[in-house]
Every structure is written in structure tokens, then in C-alpha cells.
Write a structure and sequence with these properties.
Layout: H1 2-15, H2 20-27, H3 31-38, H4 46-55, H5 60-86
């Protein structure tokens, strides 16, 4: 959830032409804190979430709709990593049985 939130913040901020430092200042937050939020390393309070979303000039409902795609992307990454765990057990070139 934190990673998806951070990625969405970064994309929305960039789309509006803000630098990370400028956006953090606009929100009344520290630049290093904002960097941690965007990397998914900070546990964001509701108060700061509200500040960030308001600074993006979005309604919370609009912002959280953007997270849907981020959750799909994270699920695909997780599934790919899980499949890679099994890669050593696969042998290429083994024919499939046909009925």
C-alpha cells in the first residue's frame, strides 16, 4: 500500500510540474520525508495524506482511484518474482504430451 501510494504521489506530482523539493515545501513537509513517502518507506499519517492530496488539487476519491493501476502493477511484479523462484526447476525443450 505504501509503495503504491508513493508511486501515485510521484506520478501526480511530476504531471503537475512540481519538483520533489518544491512539492514538499508546498505541502509544508520536509523534502527528505517526501522522498521517503514516494519510495514507500514512510508510514503516512492521514493528516499528511490529506495535505499531499490537497496539494495535488485532487479529491481523495480521485486520488485513490489512481491507486488501482498501481496495485495491479505491484501484483504483476510479485507474481513475476514468484515465478522466477521456480525457474531453476524448469528445463527448456521438454515436449508436452498431447492428448
Amino acid at each position: 500500500m505504501l509503495k503504491a501510494f508513493g508511486q501515485a504521489v510521484r506520478e501526480c506530482r511530476s504531471a503537475r510540474g512540481f519538483s520533489q523539493e518544491g512539492f514538499a515545501h508546498y505541502c509544508g513537509l520536509d523534502r527528505s520525508y517526501m522522498g521517503g513517502v514516494e519510495r514507500g518507506e514512510r508510514n503516512v499519517t492521514l493528516v499528511n495524506m490529506e495535505r499531499i492530496i490537497a496539494a495535488l488539487d485532487m479529491k481523495p476519491s480521485e486520488f485513490f482511484l489512481t491507486l488501482d493501476g498501481h496495485f495491479r502493477d505491484l501484483a504483476v511484479q510479485r507474481d513475476a518474482a514468484h515465478l522466477n523462484d521456480f525457474a531453476p526447476y524448469f528445463r527448456p525443450g521438454i515436449p508436452r504430451k498431447t492428448p
